[in-house]
Write a structure and sequence with these properties.
Strand content: under 5%
CATH topology: Four Helix Bundle (Hemerythrin (Met), subunit A)
CATH class: Mainly Alpha
Number of helices: 4
CATH architecture: Up-down Bundle
Radius of gyration: 16 Å
Largest sheet: none
CATH superfamily: Cytochrome c oxidase, subunit III, four-helix bundle
Order of helices and strands: HHHH
Helix content: over 70%
């Protein structure tokens, strides 16, 4: 394994995070608080590992892959990338606040912020996978 394998690993970690988030949502709707907690902690851990791998990759690989071809799809790709990047920055403190309220057993505050945190976190996780697929699999850039 080399540093060039990290984009695929990052996409896998994002996908796992999304799966844990959806499972956690299902569990809380079923009132299974322990399974919900375990899924949400797993989503958090996979997201933290992703961040470590992402930073390692970009600190090691000095070139940035630019989406050039096909030109007709570039604006769509850049829209996905832009919203993903913006929300990825916004979601970090939201995740921390949501987890903090749960840890402190302040479940009313936890629930209020989780209503916003969860869909944004899912969006960031899923679009992370989409970006990888577009950039490395569907439209590999030269």
């Amino acid at each position: 394994m080399t540093v060039h394998d990290l984009p695929a690993i990052n996409a896998t970690l994002n996908g796992l995070s999304a799966i844990f988030l959806v499972a956690g949502f299902i569990f809380i709707k079923r009132m299974d608080k322990i399974a919900h907690r375990n899924c949400m902690i797993s989503a958090f851990v996979t997201s933290v590992i992703f961040l470590g791998c992402y930073l390692t990759y970009h600190a090691t690989v000095k070139t940035v892959t630019h989406f050039v071809e096909p030109a007709w799809f570039r604006p769509i790709y850049l829209t996905i990338l832009g919203t993903h990047t913006l929300l990825a920055a916004i979601i970090v403190p939201m995740i921390m606040m949501t987890l903090w309220h749960a840890k402190k057993h302040n479940f009313e505050a936890h629930k209020r912020i989780a209503r916003w945190t969860w869909p944004l976190w899912v969006y960031v996780s899923v679009t992370g996978v989409v970006i990888y697929l577009l950039l490395y699999q569907i439209f590999p850039q030269k």
